[in-house]
């Protein structure tokens, strides 16, 4: 039970020792890439889920899978403080240069790099953060209008022609896609739509919080027909158990049945939570097998780690009114909850709380559920709020 042999790896995007329960998503993308390589159409893929369900880890694995299948990948995180043109320009340049190794694609790649030069020159007055080395001079009239939608469409079309000439697929992976500004998202969707119309081998695989569905639809009315959405949620009971038992067994360690039951119950089968509970149960045990008493003894350290390394980072970004609003929601349970019910819990008119609710949605702490209510984007956040704000009366106090 040496600490250095502890196989559990809780972290932001840190690959777990065993990626359980995501084979169907990987198989689906495999089929999409295969269709595109054959010149057939495939919809983009959206991975939708709460924090801590393993979207980033899964996206990283899908990048690896796509590369192994022969695709050329572009991997971005939708930045909160950097523009899409700045992020995409550098990544597309590298992708085009990789395609340039294929003799049959050289002419198409050169045209793609000229389009990139026009894209940068046309938009750098608007997006001052664009910094990318240029390999060719712009071609007048090619992706250089200064309009993001028009130029991004032209750039991705040329990149798609280069990918087809290189007999590959350009697979664009974007994490935290819900953070992309609406104007930039609309431009990306417009460009991808044109690539699909021309049957070019270009695909977007995005990951984001539940509000991404609405944002995609708001950006372009036809976007719901461009993607297949997969909800990434907690693991099944079988897969949650495998996520604990398989890496432990690889180190020669077993768990008693009641210890495994306790870990899965406490973690709610959420991948990040499973890693934390597995890590601390391992540390609490003196020998194999890990027992339910070890899990019980590990509980304070596990909860402290979740609070300090997962929940508090989000809680600290909140204003006092936002904290009070969420605490009132927590009193009602995991949710989702209607705004008028939350307002009644706080003893305030619902209209006075609407700006707070909207700010919480903008910050990614809440998402609007289909029925018009709102829910936490962070699993078990209501439990944390009761720990950190035990006195409900704080919710009703004034500034």
Task: Summarize the structure in words.
By secondary structure, the protein is of the alpha/beta class. 53% of the residues lie in helices and 9% in strands. It has 15 helices and 7 strands. The chain has helices at residues 23-37, 55-68, 84-99, 106-123, 148-165, 182-197, 212-219, 237-250, 257-267, 271-284, 292-315, 320-332, 339-346, 350-362, 381-388, and strands spanning 44-48, 72-77, 170-175, 202-208, 227-231, 366-368, 374-376. A 5-stranded parallel sheet has the order 2-3-4-1-5, with helices on both faces. A two-stranded antiparallel ribbon has the order 6-7. Strand 3, helix 6 (182-197) and strand 4 form a beta-alpha-beta unit. Helix 3 runs antiparallel to helix 4, helix 4 (106-123) runs antiparallel to helix 5 (148-165) and helix 10 (271-284) packs across helix 11. The chain starts with 22 loop residues before the first helix and ends in an 11-residue tail after the last helix. The mean pLDDT is 92.
Which secondary structure elements does this structure contain, and how are they paired or packed?
Elements: H1 23-37, E1 44-48, H2 55-68, E2 72-77, H3 84-99, H4 106-123, H5 148-165, E3 170-175, H6 182-197, E4 202-208, H7 212-219, E5 227-231, H8 237-250, H9 257-267, H10 271-284, H11 292-315, H12 320-332, H13 339-346, H14 350-362, E6 366-368, E7 374-376, H15 381-388
Parallel strand pairs: 1-4, 1-5, 2-3, 3-4
Antiparallel strand pairs: 6-7
